Amino acid sequence: MNANKLLALYSGVVTAALAFGLATNAGADTAPVKAAFDEIDVKRINVREDDGTIRMIVSNTSRSPGIIMHGKERPHPGGNRGAGIIFYNDEGSENGGLTFSGRKGPDGKISSGGHLSFDQYEQDQVIQLTQNEQGGRRWAAMVVNDRPDNALDFGLAERISKMPEGPERTAALQKVQADGTFGRQRLYVGKTRDRESAVMLSDAMGRPRIMMKVTPDGKASIDFLDEKGAVLRSVSPDTK
Fold first, then answer.
1. What's the pLDDT at 7?
2. What pLDDT sits at residue 30?
3. By CB count within 10 A, which of 7, 120, 158, 164 is most buried?
4. By C-alpha distance, which of 63, 102, 56 is closest to 80?
5. How far apart are the first and last CA of the chain?
6. What is the value of pTM for the model shown?
């Protein structure tokens, strides 16, 4: 076989192989591809819709996302939120998540927490299942919050989070709390840092109006409060 015929044969084989590869790839675009693993190590998984919209992110601490709204990411106001799972709505905006942490520091003190929450549209958490331990004190609760009708002001939250500890930061926090800028707590059901079992019901201004509690030694009471927090009436098992 001379060189020209060899070249022509080689060219035909390459063309046929290329055509087969293109046909195979075209079929792969329309058929789902499944992979099976016995074990996998990964730092982050992004779950997306067919059009690329983000719906869930599973990540370790170093790869945790910032705040994503309508598919655009900005730094988290509190810095790195840690390892967990973040949920996103149909528009690619954050609407809840599951985060968790826990460690013993060099001083032997434990810092630990777990948090599952769901957000109002373009706002913050409206329902939380959460627990925390700091400095030997622990609390755990289900919390329900009211949030404003307008979208969350991420710029303001970021500015306050970056303020150093001091009078200016305290004043800023007191102002947004009084204004209800970031919402108000309406219901708390859980265990307090003082080891009391408690149910607290608050009005639309976030003011506690009914407090039900059982102390660690078993004393039970129901307090009815005015708008300034003063007890209007207290009911206990020995109330006559």
1. 46
2. 65
3. 120
4. 63
5. 115
6. 0.79
